[in-house]
Amino acid sequence: MDTKIQKVLQQINLNLKSISSYIEKLSSEDIKIDENKIHLFDYSIYKWLNKLENQELRKRLEEFNEQSANHLISDNFVEFCRYVYLQIEILLDKFTDHNSPERKQDSNYNKINKLKDFFKVIRGGEQNFKSYEDKEYKMITHIMNIRDIASHADSNGKSLTERVEAKGKSIKIILQNLNNSISQEDIKNIFFEFVIKKNSMIITVKKPEKGLSYAYIQLFDLKYEYLNYNSIHNYIESNLNILGHRLGNKVKVSLNKEQPTNELKIFYEKKDYQQIEQTLNWFIQQIDNYLK
Hints:
This protein is an alpha+beta fold and 292 residues long.
């Protein structure tokens, strides 16, 4: 037999053996791919995306969708969230262009504003949208937060897991024996010390007919040095000589007995790919219903 022909046949034989080995691995425990977990959305079924002016947009959606499927297979939850959110971001921008084109020029109109406006429309008005209990809204904000945390370096050297826990943590505090003249804005100005953004708090002031006022405060987006309630309590106690004339010299600061669940941390640890895909599918359908 000719030497060249013999080498070609040997190479073919090796290739066949490699293919056979790969097929065996696919059917064994060496390589596990759950086909139920590989979900590529077919964006071509949506009529508005098939219009000529939306071809580039559809191409980007399909590319990001393919990337999210790849990261699902490799069990890279953070990157999976990133590419799911990129799809949501594109669709949300398209919705905003259609629903509120004038808002595009407003530099203060951020992604949270866009998302809330979307839900107000989808839920049938602002009175029907409760962000703190809306399942789909909370799921999308979790995806968004994971993407944002992973996309920005941390100057404090905290790990991704630590940053997720910090981002999702909130603290409920009770203030008692407050000055009756105190307002929500007064309390907000004082407690701004503990949070990253001034609007990262919910304050309810109660002014009884008799006795001193009291307030319930929930703080979000806490600064790292105030993630522990004791650090907040110590700050107020040590600065009563300054804060006393605003809060009241008899003010008492205490931790609410029932503290909020860190839902973002649970979301991050649970890694529920299927639930995220269901939410994305729901979001796509809502956009389609509105734009078609």
